[in-house]
Protein 1
Amino acid sequence: MKEEDTKKSLDKRMTLREAISKYVFDGCSIAFSGMGGEQVVAPTYEIVRQGQKNLTLMGDSPCEVGDYLVGTGQIRRVEVAWLAFAVAGVSPNYRRAVEEGLPHKIEVREFSNYTMGLRFLAGAMGLPFMVTRSLAGTSLEKYNDMIKVIEDPYGGKKVALVPAAKPDVAIIHANRADILGNTQFIGFSSNGENIARAAARTIVTCEKIVSTDEIKKAPTLTSVPQYAVDAVVEVPFGSHPWNMPYAYAYDLPFHMKMMAGIDTADGFKRWMDEWAFGCKDHEEYCEKVGWARLKKLAQIERKFCKSKL
Amino acid sequence: MSTTEKKYAEDYTLQELLVAAAAREIKDREVVFVGVGIPCLGALVAKLTHAPDVILAVESGCIGPSPYRLMLGIGDNACVENAICITSLWRAFSDQQRGYFDIGMLGGAQVDKYGNLNSTVIFGGGSYEKPKTRLPGSGGANDIAISAKRTLIMMNQQKRRFLEKVDYITSPGYLDGPGCREKYGYPGGGPAVIISNMAIFRFDEKTKEAYLDSVHPGVTAEAVRKEVSWDLQVSPDLKTTPPPTNEEANIIRTLDSQKVYTGGGLKNLTFENYIKMLNSSHEKIKVMFE
């Protein structure tokens, strides 16, 4: 189906398996929303299950999406600002790939969080590049041929240029969306609004599908309007073990267990066998984590941040 | 609180001293771009003591939160709690580039005498493409180093980390010395301070080199010099870093009751204790903000 056709569909609902198999293909470039939370975890496990290869990851600060897909050998190239697990630790698979070439070498092009954000903004604006004060004079510029430093043509000092990022596929995880694809973050949107617009195909996964009337009650929250969206999938707890604002708290103890699990290449394989291949879908993953535990994380979050919606 | 009334804690830990030292770098009403860990705790301690109107900002796009729990990351739900503005990443960073953010907080694996930081790769005899140690990378650090009005750097004091030149400049300090930041038109003023586990360094206005300004209690200037690779200058007015006050220590222990940042609590954190921590911090920290 042509791009226009799916973006104009009036009911974009599908399963996660359908969405990933329809839009994520071997050799594609792919980008995900999230920043230090709101990570796109459930779709990552589904991409591991389906095994698409030779991916180029475009991202600001990916966690599971970077570490796991590098560890499984599905990523060929990363264009990122950072790759790790923040408070939980560093990325063992990124380290193994760069330091030891395991499971295979990857190409790395490094930017900063802001300038990856600007790359998606350029993509979302239909422009070839964006200009920034960041990067010039540092090693990022020196080791990355995608960054150009020029004299400000209006008579100022040096400025850096970064090229538009236009991924083949974007996967955005938000709080809620309607079946048309109108997508709302109740908390922060990180680079999601621009990643969604910059991509050729955009899959929105959300904690809850709501009615369009519900969306219209708070239209200022709509970060991505329906015309930029190809698929909508309801994926409750789709960021677990990460936090989702107004939905559930960070499962830090689970993350520590995961970090200990994936510390070695063998351990990582076992973790994938258990949590990706050992679960046929995200629902089975949730069952395995335990619904009681997930509900506890949701319940505790309401104590701190209760949505008025 | 006047200086004479300050009661210093006696049973404080090194981490608590570092948090207090970071807190004291922050002035009231400043906008602070915070990262994860001890600097972030420092910003919260500042907000709960001498700087009630400080505005915290994080990379995910949350501005001005007053969280009733420890912030476990720059996109933790704590970052949206009682915030004044929740926006997107590029917008928060654009506000910084525009000049609205007073202080940014940085760390790294290596620092040099001009405050240039490396959090990308340790060559270790190898190269950028094939390094000994691959680190996470810039994240927002390059942007913060260039555009925040001033930066605070937190580092572990080791000779192999305090270098004449870093392997890779992730976050620029003064690059090769005076005039370099101006050449590239960086909006921000550069590093103001390095806080290590042994000492506090500041930067000479003329040479832009880091010098020793203060040693932590029990540490000598000579011991610090041994853990620095360049010919470190020592301030003629060398100070001793004040320990945390009782008030600061109590706040730190309430904010980080399970010692996630100020001890070894992270590795042994059970789900039950974690939920307990969240429950109790809601009660105890809420009161502190009221």
Note: Chain B touches chain A through 70 residues (CB under 8 Å).
Protein 2
Amino acid sequence: MKRLSTLLAVAAVTLSASAAAAQERLKIGLITTLSGPPAALGQQQRNGLQLAIKSLGGKLGGREVDLIVQDDELKPDVAVSKVKAFVERDKVDFVVGPVFSNILVAIMKPATDGGAFLVSPNAGTSNFAGKDCNANFFVTSYQNDQNHEVLGKYAQDKGMKKVFIMAPNYQAGKDSLSGFKRYFKGEVVDEVYVPLNQLDYSAELARIAAAQPEAVFVFLPGGMGVNFVKQFRQAGLADKVTFLSAFTVDESTLPAQQDAALGFFGGANWAPNLDNPQNKAFVAAYEKEYGHVPGSYAFQAYDAGQLIDAALKATGGKTDDKNALRAALMKADFKSLRGAFRFNTNHYPIQDFYLVKVAKRPDGKYQTEIAQKVFENYSDPHVKDCKMK
Amino acid sequence: MPLLLFIALAVVPPLASMAGQAHVTGLFARGMIFALAALGLDLLVGYGALVSFGHAAFVGLGAYTVAILGAHGIHDAAVVVPVAVVAAAAFAAATGAISLRTRGVYFIMITLAFGQMAFFTASSLAPYGGDDGLTVSTRTTLFGYAPLGRDVALYYVIFAVLACAYGLMRFLVASRFGRVFRAAKENPVRVAALGFDVYRFQLAAYMVSGVVGALAGVLLANATEFVSPAYMSWRRSGELIIMVLLGGMGSLHGAIIGALAFLLLEEWLAGVTEHWKIIFGPLLVVVVLFARGGLVGIGAALARRWWRG
Amino acid sequence: MSTTLLIVQILNGLQLGVLLFLIAAGLTLVFGVMDFINLAHGVQYMLGAYLAVMFYGLTGSFVAALVLALLASLGCGLLLEFVVFRHLYDRDHLDQVIATFGIILFLNQGVKLVWGAAPLSLPIPEALSGSVVLMPGLLYPVWRIVIIASGLAAGLVLYGLVAHTRIGMLVRAGATNATMVSALGVDIRRLFMIVFGFGTMLAGFAGIMIAPILSVEPGMGDTILILAFVVIVIGGIGSIRGAFIAALLIGLVDTLGRSFAVDILRLFLAPSPARTVAPALASMLIYLLMAVVLFLRPSGLFPARGR
């Protein structure tokens, strides 16, 4: 009896495999930033997506995958031309990417007008969550404001009185500080906008020292964060002022910040030590494959791969019925590394958010670790402006 | 050679669609837009020895005209193009009047300064997207019609503008104006001694060049349906200079070839390897060391050899 | 804006200034003496930082890393000079621009291939980490003081070399009229190599000294290159004195502008528009300064010769 069932199972697998082989290969275009200083983020995205495909046996939804990776060079017009090539030349069914919001705004129209589904594994601007929401656009990360709101809520709950806040002078920076202030009702002793990609923070550190706040909240992604964290520690402020941040201390910057960032706080929807079996397996596999600790960029790209896989499994690998595929994507029927989450009507996740803290692991590597849950099943406020139901 | 170039460009869309590679049309459209900007720059660099390192500002100015007017519901070329032209001419007149007092590297750096000022201004335009840029919802129309709706139509409009600009430049360079301007490159003192006001000739050329750049910007905004301060960054200005030099400066069609070669090489190499710059960089060095006069220079040398042999 | 804050900002401005001077000095000499536009000067600064990180990883000592990285960046510079640059000296400026731009692309990508795209860092030597109290209520990081001091020292050494040695005399003569120097029987190639190697080492030194403060990443030299060009153009090409003064000027204007622009604009504007306008204006400030200087003095503050 047992042998018979094994035989049947083998036959079923063979049959379904040959059915899948008859299907065309699934084409996915990944547009991400692989040049310039932020290349490390784009590489994590690429690694995460590749690892998802690999761990699913080289297939998504039973179909062999052609993954086409292109560098947007952080130039919007380059990104547009690459995405047009995805849609027109390669006839991709899914475009995955990008890292940065300004690229997302640029590629939305060419990607979705061309009939592909756009899955963003990082950038999630407020306009696409609200009035410009798009039926063929899904976000596996968050709405950009949310990670900043985590810190605002935390500072408020802690009863902090005086906070110094700072971000680069661009749209995401302004969204960041207004996100923080949405929940923090204490005194903002100073609100500083620095030029994008500023390297030296001596001027601002002097102001912080003079203002003597309880905490600082900063949003300084990439190299800016590396510089600021090191200089903050060197200025002797780390022992006096609580360091709250978003996208400033994470697995992409910690290898350079090292001890300087120890004990600093961030906000996130996930951390490498988040306790669930699928995440443990992911972190172990990622470190084995790529030799560094994965960050949220890698995790969200991995989830993007899983999302596509789950949706295609539901449609039997078919992509031509866009409505069926959209409904299947909407279900998000897979084991996300962050634990359970669901999509809101604007196709942004409803999920938990955590305060995370930088720690040194016993093996000498650095990572962020969950400190406490700040929001439960949190959805973004922009959804009310979105007409999709 | 220029004629062959334009014929080749004219048959790109039908060939591309026959080969089932429709996106190639878009690629060449992008190439021609940068060719247009490079063409304008070549007038300054190649014929006047005025290396402008802020030329991307004009492209951005044209692009932002489309986006800002579009945000207020004005999409018609009858308004957009004149506004872009006047804005670029005015910006060129103001910055050129100051920049042209300097020479050589000082001119390079002062044009960079104005380019950077334009860049930071665009970045601080919060109502128009700030650093994130702005989506262009509707392509430019002409008296209510939408001739640019299809990519192929847009391609031929870009082609026509490039061809007209090329014709205009040829005429300009050969005219009395052009002769004085070119002579001023070789020996400004002597030209001045002949009674010409060199400064005014150069300012006029600077304005023409800026207006051509702005037209490229109008087309770029239409092609990408998006504008961003990144269009004005100094890296973009640098790329425009490299395009002119790669093609071979002072020949006009060299700028077009340089721009197309730059973008097509980039596209092709980026498809080959993620680390394409490690090939592209030395390639530039090789072109300089072994091919004086850029790609056009190589072409001419090969043609001579073939003629003799 | 208290007095202590102002003093700290002035020190910070000085620190940026001497850093710019270390880079601009080589650039202006190479340009002035050899009439060679070397866009690759910025990647030599980057290379210095990367080499220091690498040698620190190997030796675990900052001093050893400093010495080895200096020698290695000198070696890299001379290698580049030998393979590429010496074929460009008698060429058009624009040929030099395109070739050295190619080198930038190559080295930025090469660094990424070798060391990865993620930013790296170099720790501050233990003895020089931490801060000192300069006056009551004024705490300042020791390492930044070290940078200021070593930059000023390098400036003095350079001044001594240029003003009081035979090589320096030839360099000054070369900046004024290279053809004449060559006609007088001086081995101009050797002079070029010395000047070039020295300039490279200064840029590498700047990269090493700043590595503990800034993140070491591909492309870190590009922005600083533009700033260095601003400095040498304001100072006047070929003039060490001009580069020194212009570097301090740019460092101070940029730092003070960034920190006080909001406060100054708040005198005229409401807080919210002041906050949005000020950073854009502060970023523009050095370019405005350059435009004004060149408007008044088209060849910079201390032109070495008519150009």
Note: Residues 166 and 249 of chain C are 30 Å apart (CA to CA).
Protein 3
Amino acid sequence: MTNPVSRREFLNLLGAYGGTSAVLQAGVALGFMPSSSQAAEITLQANNGKKVAILGTGISALTTAWELTKAGYGCTLLEASHRPGGRMFTVRSGTVIDEIGNYQRCEWDNDPHLYFNAGAARIPSIHSNVLKYCKELEVELQVFVNESKTAWVQDDAMNGGKPVRNTDYSSSMQGFISEMLSKALGDSQLDSSLTESESEILLSMLRRFGDLNEDMLYKGSTRAGYGSGGFLDHGTKKDVVALRDLLKARNGGSVMVTTQEGTGSGPLLMQPVGGMDRIIYAFANRLRDRIKFRAPVTEVMVKGDGVEVAYEQNGVTEVLKADYCFNCIPSHLMSGIPNNFPTDYSEALNYIRRGRAYKAAFQAKERFWEKENIYGGITWVNAPIQQIWYPPHNIHGKKGVVLAAYNFGGANYTEMSQEDRIEDLLKHGEKVHPNYREMAEKPMTIAWHRMNHMLGCAPRWARNRGGWSDKEEQMYETLRQPVNGRHYLIGDQSTQHSAWMESAIQSAHYALADLDQRVRSEPA
Amino acid sequence: MKKLMTSTTLFLSVLCSAASLAAEGDIGVAAAMDDRYCTTCHGVEGLGNIAIEAPRLAGMEAWYLKRQLENFRAGIRGKHGEDLQGNAMRPMAAKLSDESITDIVDWIGDWEYVPAEATIEGNVRQGRTAFQACAACHGANAQGNEALGAPALAGQNDWYLLTQLRNFRAGFRGSHQEDTFGSQMVTMSKTLRDDQAVINVVSYINTL
């Protein structure tokens, strides 16, 4: 028996025989690479008078409610929090951050430009369903600048701790990588896998990619900006930062891949004008009478002919009876709500772990970054704050909101006091911008692990870095099947690419398609 | 449409500024103005949530709850770097006022006691023998003894008892110098010979 060829091996073989275009085409067919994505067409059977209970008001729940309401279903949404949206949450003047034991009320200036997207913050151009709803619900979008070459890279170990411009880092790194690869092309092993013409094209590309000189050496590049002159006078190149120095920075990988749009990140993304929650409110305002706020679910019982959901509102327990239930309550919270789910379904719910994420932001007294030629993008700091974002909107306005930390790992922000979190973001930020502390007004922080009614950020399925185990795939499929054909789990927890609005919306579409098919097949 | 809801609990007037949603200009209601957050982690009516590793509170004695909340607030419990669950709880309690603690304890007192489901299987017979040392303080039926400061163990989530016994044995809980009762438990827990003995004793408590 011969071993089957893995998909990855197959692509390598194909690359050897068919070239890049063959790999690309086959990659799309095998599901490795995103094809140009299309928004889903939702056509539900209309006016059937069915009642649906929707638990939570995250974007998957709102999508479900919106589509079902348009088709004439009777929807009721139960939201435990005082606000809709879950992890699509924008903080502005007056917003309450309902973090457990760290209640904060935002007292920034009341100005529409001054907001902080504390959860979802960026929309890639390939997230077609998010964009489709923005268009349908008339949510105005603007460009979000994800990468600015004039933003900074800072690591205490590099350049004596002084920040270097992104472009100094990335153009030098491109130069050194190109120089090394062009030398390696002389190596017989690498050379033998390429034809003469391929080698020639690759060398020519490397020369331009790295801005190499005629000897194929990197001796600095004007891409990093000029040391002096450049307009009235001839520009002079900056001194080259030695490769050895660049290699002291441990966050270089992040610096180099920000522009790789594919799964989500890219140089140019989008954001709604005024905050990410404009999408949430565009849905919620159209569904307003159907949403019950501060109505936490206290029991979910799936019956033969429907679902009974108990919830508490104003100290009174009510029971909502519905034909179907769509549930986006985070799995780890659902584990604490009495239910009659089958054992394997409950085991799968209990299995998903809750991701940690921490963000912080402050209102800047002045747009100090613009004085440093920065108009958006990300500064990378090798410290737990990891990133500093500059607002790409309201250029040259008076103030702006700076995102002062974005950590999605295991840093200990969750346990830190507000005072310690603020000191932490100031102390790391001022290594990049000397006047940072003076500029920062009223910092706000959010540790999603402690957020009331959330207790976590994006769900984490795979426990091994190598990817999903067979057991995990099996549990995932268990949760994708509706309990008794009545209870659907939705949200990014019910997808294999969590943390994106697009995934959550697609989970709703997947469940809606299943519901529609069941409803259509019912005897009249 | 802006609904301004008044909380059923009334203290913490400091938080009672205008409803946040007035500024949002959209639907929703005012955020809660109390510290009754417990059920988010500890489950509906404090029945416990294994996914959060947050134990059952329903049925827990008022005096014990109060002591633990105060210990968490003061950093007497939950500060050891290896006490992961305690680390998660401590910041939740760090800012609680005395009134909040009283309110929370009263609120939890309203919840019905429902024994937790057993999830751990050990040698019950050996566990029963080992439990004799525990019974001196916690009572023969693990019903607790306020006079000795020993809480009820019966009906508690077994996975929680297991974690706590392991933490006491390792000194992750109870080693703070002001944790008088905890330090007694550090000593007593060491009478259990090994981890299997811990599992056995918890299995026996499940039968009570």
Note: The two ends of chain A are 53 Å apart (CA to CA).
